[in-house]
Amino acid sequence: MTAVSVNRAESVLHNALAFEVRASKLTRWRLQAWRFGLLAVLLVAWQVLANHGLDPFFFSSPQAIGNALLRFWHSGALVDSATYTLGEAVAGYIAGAIFAVIAAALLGPAPRAYAAVEPYILAIYSVPSVAIAPLFIIWFGVGVASKIVLAAYFVFFVVFMNVSAGIRSIPQGWIDGPRIMGASRWQVLTKIRFRAAMPHFILGLKIAVPEAIIGAIVGEFISSQKGIGYLILSSSARYDTASVFAAIFVLGVLVLIMSAAVRDVKHGARR
Amino acid sequence: MSVSAHQPVLDKALREPVRRDRQDHMVIWGGRALILVGFLGIWQFASGRLVDRDFISSPLDVARAWWALAENGTLVDEGLHTAGEFVAGYFLGAITGVVAAVLLTWRGFAYRVAEPYLFVFYSLPKLALAPLIGLWFGLGASPKIVLAAVVTCLLVIINLVAGIRAVKPDLLGVMQIMGAGKLQAYRQLIIPFSIPYVLTALRFGIPFSMIAVILAEFIGSYHGLGHVIAEQAAFLNVDTMMALVVTLAAFVAVFRLMLLPLERWVSRHHL
User: Fold this and answer.
1) In chain A, where does DSSP find H-type helix?
2) In a domain, B55, yes or no
3) What is the tens place of the pLDDT at every residue in B47-80?
4) Does B219 fall in a domain?
5) Residue numbers of the domain that contains A34
6) Interchain proximity B248–A128, CB inside 8 Å
7) Contact criterion met (CB < 8 Å) for B35 and A126
């Protein structure tokens, strides 16, 4: 009995040590191979199934999606829609982030004011954002403006919550000390509160990237004549499944590009 | 002698923070009431005088519209549709999310193969899938349930996987040495340890899956509060739209409150 468990312990230990040694190079290669292999197998399986049995009307196929992408590219629809949606998302992202920082700068340092406003912010936060989208369309029209506002609205809360949490989490001593030594409120805000809230701000900016794109897309879903969201919706209305997949693929690439851009800006800010 | 001389001062000093707390409390609640009354008052005043009433409606008109919806049964009938879709999608997503996370992490290598795909899929705007899912599942309740489930499922997977990977390797090693199998390790250590992570996902999942349900209702449906909002938007009926938005916010708030006892129970019994 004891012999067995000691043996087992030994083999676990042995495995662990062996794993450490092997872990470095071989595993990394194997990992990459498996990752690409998985993707390739899935794509090939999809294509084969689409050719034999699976209804391409509903599920399309990698080949048809590739063709749709090429078609979008040649007709110029891809670049047009992508820049349109990206423009809405970026404008909304910047506007939302700026308003969020201003609101957090006003409310963060005043604990009582923050406590007074907090339940309303939480109440607005629990309004399903998509539900207000039609109202924004009524207020700001079917053009670019309503999508920018919608994207800004989506971004605002994420950034505001993070920045104000950062501003409020500063120890009181960091503020009292400089104040006693004669720092103005403005100096405390810019030199201490903002600096200390920086990691929270960056986190908020990172989380808000998909939110901005979602805001733009949702606006386009509800009412628009252009953009990736429009492309997705109009293709699905024509039961053109391949184009729907192609447009969603482009959207994914947009999100990745925007995330990468934010990451670069972030690294720039660190330096 | 000296003690009794200091007593009143001491008493006062001890009572002071309590008094100030009470004062703070009054200021905060007064501020809250002032904000609410001021906001509703300005809105009511501005409506029809400063801004066109058709655009921003007014608090009284919204209340009237809400009452009309409640009286003719729309609120209950359509609300039950939306709530049913939400609950079904939320639970379906939560359960599949837990199962998928356990399966994914069962073998460390398999998880590392799947990791980049998981994160890319997680960071994509899932709401963009709404037209595609509508194409596959039609106009009934199922596309709403599926979209809400997809959103919740990914949230749960990402959080639960983070929780599972945060389990201390020492503890796992000890269990292994004592002869515990994988199933036992999951049952007695890994799952209990990561419950707070699941709870975080469940908390954020409530507004997200509600948003998914409403968007799916916008895009194609016969029933649900989202359907009614989209319908009323076509008539520029802002009163009714706002009444419905408020109702949906209350939905989200109520579901959040229902999660509170669970959160309290976990925080009391966890570690």
Assistant:
1) 2-23, 25-51, 56-59, 62-75, 77-107, 111-125, 129-140, 144-168, 172-180, 185-187, 194-222, 228-237, 241-270
2) no
3) 888 888 888 888 999 999 999 999 999 899 999 9
4) yes
5) 2-54
6) yes
7) no
